[in-house]
Design brief:
The protein has a single domain (about 5-210), classed as 2-enoyl-CoA Hydratase, Chain A, domain 1 (Alpha-Beta Complex). By secondary structure, it is an alpha/beta fold. The chain contains 13 helices and 10 strands. The relative contact order is 0.14. It has helices spanning about 35-50, 70-75, 80-100, 115-125, 140, 150-160, 160-170, 175-180, 195-205, 210-225, 225-240, 245-255, 260-265, and strands at about 10-15, 20-25, 55-60, 65, 105-110, 110-115, 125-130, 135, 175, 185-190.
């Protein structure tokens, strides 16, 4: 693929060696439809192969980073083996391609980040988030296991106690709180998110490239060591799309109400 092949990712070059990737579905708060969900995994090998890009910065257009998965994408997964198979392959591509991209990746989380937004935002090597941004892994609120990225990275970033708390409860946390617990690298005022990320990117782009890439590769062996945990969590998440709980979870989200999961009532 080439940069021009991407529909919902817009590439610009704000300074030498720095590639700015803007997630662009602003009217939908950058919620991931099928095309965008796939592109969030496909972009990283293209970045790796691009000789003009030393560092990638990824942000969202408008007021959100990525506001989770599009409701139509969610509905398509329920009780569909082929759709679930495709989704699991895209998730694995997103996670492993970000880990294996040799070039540093910086996320500029400018607002709401849920689902794939959390995956891309937290798997970046450096994450800069707005202090008032709202972050959430909402898998258990939907009725499926937290499987797309959480098990492989949250415990390494913020420790098991905080990881279990936020992943089991699906509670929102602010960017400021995310920095306090170590989930992100930096939190800054909203109007400074992108400029801060680009400043860090420019600094890295002028640094010793092979040393930076080997440092990233070495550190990411900690993440690779958690691959079996990720594979298990992804399988459990996908299995959940064949449950009665996810049907109720999707209805509750659509109707903006508290879910009443059948598995809780069966006890």
């Amino acid at each position: 693929m080439k940069f021009d092949d991407f529909e919902h990712l817009v590439m610009t070059r704000p300074s030498p060696g720095v590639l700015l990737i803007t997630i662009s579905r602003p009217d939908q708060l950058n919620a991931a439809n099928r095309k965008l969900h796939a592109e969030l995994g496909q972009i990283w090998p293209v970045v790796d192969a691009d000789p003009e890009s030393q560092v990638a910065v990824i942000t969202g257009a408008g007021k959100a980073f990525v506001a989770g998965g599009d409701i139509d994408l969610l509905r398509a997964q329920i009780n569909s083996y082929q759709e679930v198979k495709t989704l699991s392959e895209e998730v694995a591509s997103m996670v492993y391609n970000m880990i294996d991209c040799d070039k540093p990746v910086i996320s500029a989380i400018n607002g709401l980040a849920v689902g794939p937004g959390m995956a891309v935002g937290l798997l970046a090597d450096i994450s800069v988030v707005a202090e008032d941004a709202r972050l959430m892994d909402g898998h258990t609120k939907l009725g499926v296991a937290a499987g797309d990225h959480a098990a492989i990275i949250w415990p390494l970033l913020c420790g098991m106690a905080k990881a279990k708390y936020y992943l089991l409860t699906s509670k929102f946390l602010t960017g400021a709180e995310a920095e306090r617990i170590g989930l992100v690298s930096l939190s800054v005022p909203t109007d400074q998110v992108l400029s801060t990320a680009l400043e860090i990117g420019a600094d890295l782009a002028s640094g010793p490239q092979q040393a930076l890439r080997w440092t990233k590769r070495s550190l990411n062996h900690w993440v690779r060591a958690a691959a079996p945990t990720f594979e298990a969590s992804l399988a459990y998440e996908m299995l959940g799309f064949f449950s009665d709980d996810v049907v109720e979870g999707e209805r509750a989200i659509s109707e903006r109400r508290r879910p009443h999961f059948p598995s809780a009532e069966d006890q």
